[in-house]
UniProtKB/TrEMBL annotation:
Protein name: ParA family protein
Domain AAA as annotated: residue spans: 1-166
Gene3D superfamilies reported for this sequence: P-loop containing nucleotide triphosphate hydrolases
């Protein structure tokens, strides 16, 4: 079982759009996939039309007992794809994580325990820099980081890399890709080029800026279901193939 996180310090960069389309793609290709919506705003749960059971909550128990977490798993409308939908109590997850003794390893240990049921666990992350983020950095085998090719997003990525260096996290896990790319913009082209020279691991395929992605909110579905042959959908499919290759390289 592999764990892939969609993460960035920044909000609104395409983490959720990637998590939803990649999770759907992985499930379609036959991988038993679990998407965990860790963002209390619940965007990926919204796209997949999955709600938490009334009264269910993330509590200390959820972090310690596999059963409590498994109880939150919901089926989606699609084969091979389950979800742990977001809920308001996720706002307290950081505090809960701070109350546990095992610091950054809680999430990894927890997820490893449900590994027999899934081939892939995808984490749709909130833009946090807290204990939760550190748990995500330890838990994930790969961390997909959407980067809009502008100077500010480049700077955010530089900061993430520096954070990994300072804290001695495994930098090989970081897998950036360009998101919301407008190829007509000279700035996007120049920034992307400069970053590719500095960071060899940036994924080759980029996600274009596309109204189709915005329309996911209208259809409440991944692109493949309403924009199959379109550029943005093809970009996510190609991106997923690249990610899969990277996953194969991990033991
Ligand atoms: N490639 C894209 N082209 C156009 N709009 C996009 C694209 N990716 C995301 N968006 C839109 O931008 C907003 C933020 O995207 P989202 O995936 O929710 O970001 P995050 O999860 O990083 O906060 C949403 O309204 C979404 O529809
Ligand atoms: Mg999001």
């Amino acid at each position: 079982m592999k764990i892939v996180a969609c993460y960035s310090f920044k909000g609104g960069v395409g983490k959720t759009a990637a998590a939803v389309n990649l999770a759907y793609r992985a499930a379609q290709s036959g991988q038993r996939t679990l998407l965990i919506d860790l963002d209390p705003q619940g965007a990926s749960s919204f796209y997949f039309r999955v709600r938490p059971e009334a009264g269910s909550k993330w509590k200390k128990q959820t972090l310690e007992q596999t059963d409590a977490l498994m109880g939150q798993i919901r089926e989606s409308d699609y084969s091979n794809l389950d979800l742990i939908p977001a809920q308001r109590s996720l706002r307290n997850l950081d505090i809960l994580l701070k109350q546990t003794d095992s610091r950054e390893t809680v999430l990894r240990r927890l997820l490893k325990k449900i590994s027999q049921d899934y081939d892939l666990i995808l984490l749709d992350c909130p833009p946090s820099v807290s204990r939760l983020a550190e748990n995500i950095f330890v838990a994930a085998d790969l961390i997909l980081v959407p980067v809009i090719p502008t100077p500010l997003s480049e700077r955010t990525y530089d900061q993430l890399v520096r954070f990994f260096k300072d804290k001695d996290y495994d930098r090989k896990k970081l897998l950036p890709f360009f998101s919301m790319v407008d190829a007509r913009k000279q700035l996007h082209r120049d920034t992307a080029l400069g970053m590719r020279q500095r960071y060899k691991r940036i994924l080759r395929h980029a996600i274009p800026y596309s109204t189709d992605v915005e329309r996911m909110g209208v259809h409440r579905a991944p692109l493949d279901l309403f924009a199959r042959g379109r550029q943005a959908n093809r970009a996510y499919l190609a991106l997923w193939e690249e990610v899969e290759l990277q996953l194969e390289g991990i033991g």
